[in-house]
């Protein structure tokens, strides 16, 4: 895993106002919207291919990093997002056929319900695009494909430090859902995976009115207090992503959206099914990516620490 001490892929907030896209003439809001669209495309294709959440998270991370060094004006987000999916599926050993990835990307980009034939022009164009863009993506990423995600720390926290695993089941599901939705933000470029995991847990605790000190004892205080400012910043950014989607004004972590029932079953490998994600707090303000919420993932790669 990449050490969080390695600052190559971490940026200060002011650096987001001088990205290659903005230097080439795009406004900050347009770039932000393009990032959202690219991540949404990754999620749609990933769900269609039944990719593990970890693979989609890696693809999203590659995508966010790419556009800190390249411009949206020069490279279409569909092309880069598709290539990130392909590269992440190899990096995380998700064993998807290249042909299936190409077909899924072409189908979702064209917004078609029926599969695209692998002899069609659309298929050939997407195939060539992904092959061409992969080399560019690897060069832009400096061939640094070892990544770390918040999920790992979240699982360690719940598996080893939670006092009552049965009572905290919902807390685990909601925190996981907030980590999933943090992929739509640039938190992976500004905060370490540990901070993002703690922020997601903090927001989940607020949402469920759960006292985290009761759930995790002294370990929560020891984790929270040294990083309080960073955790609050990350939590605010997670919440801002919902507010931007729903066009609401203002923010309060003490007034979370009411009424959600996140509660689908976990898979044997310890990861929530997509049902848990789509029935999470995210569903209140974010788009559902066209997948049956009762349909589980294939779970072909364990997340267990």
UniProtKB/TrEMBL annotation:
Pfam families the record matches: Cyclin_N (PF00134)
Domain of life: Eukaryota
Keywords from the UniProt entry: Cyclin, Membrane, Transmembrane, Transmembrane helix
The keyword Hydrolase is annotated on this UniProt entry: no
CDD domains per the UniProt record, alphabetical: CYCLIN_SpCG1C_ScCTK2-like_rpt2
Limits of the Cyclin-like domain: 40-139, 152-233
Region named Disordered: 247-305
Keyword S-adenosyl-L-methionine (UniProt): no
GO BP, one annotated term: regulation of transcription by RNA polymerase II
Segments passing through the bilayer: 39-63
Name of the protein this chain belongs to: Cyclin-like domain-containing protein
Organism: Linnemannia schmuckeri
């Amino acid at each position: 895993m990449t050490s969080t001490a390695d600052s190559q892929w971490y940026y200060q907030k002011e650096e987001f106002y001088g990205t290659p896209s903005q230097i080439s003439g795009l406004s900050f809001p347009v770039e932000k919207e393009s990032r959202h669209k690219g991540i949404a495309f990754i999620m749609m294709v990933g769900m269609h291919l039944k990719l593990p959440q970890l693979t989609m998270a890696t693809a999203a991370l590659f995508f966010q990093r790419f556009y800190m060094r390249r411009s949206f004006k020069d490279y279409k987000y569909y092309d880069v997002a598709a290539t990130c999916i392909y590269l992440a599926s190899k990096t995380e050993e998700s064993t998807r056929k290249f042909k299936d990835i190409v077909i899924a990307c072409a189908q979702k980009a064209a917004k078609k319900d029926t599969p695209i034939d692998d002899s069609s022009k659309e298929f050939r164009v997407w195939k060539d695009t992904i092959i061409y863009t992969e080399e560019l993506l690897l060069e832009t990423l400096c061939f640094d494909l070892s990544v770390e995600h918040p999920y790992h720390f979240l699982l360690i926290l719940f598996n080893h430090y939670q006092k009552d695993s049965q009572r905290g089941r919902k807390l685990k599901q909601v925190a996981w859902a907030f980590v999933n939705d943090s992929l739509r933000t640039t938190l992976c470029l500004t905060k370490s995976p540990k901070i993002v995991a703690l922020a997601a847990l903090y927001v989940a605790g607020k949402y469920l009115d759960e006292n985290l000190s009761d759930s995790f004892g002294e370990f929560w205080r020891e984790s929270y207090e040294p990083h309080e400012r960073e955790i609050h910043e990350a939590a605010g950014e997670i919440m801002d992503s919902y507010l931007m989607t729903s066009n609401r004004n203002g923010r309060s972590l003490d007034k979370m959206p009411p009424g959600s029932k996140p509660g689908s079953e976990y898979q044997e490998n310890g990861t929530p099914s997509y049902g848990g994600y789509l029935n999470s707090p995210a569903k209140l303000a974010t788009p559902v990516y066209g997948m049956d919420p009762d349909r589980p993932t294939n779970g072909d790669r364990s997340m267990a620490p």
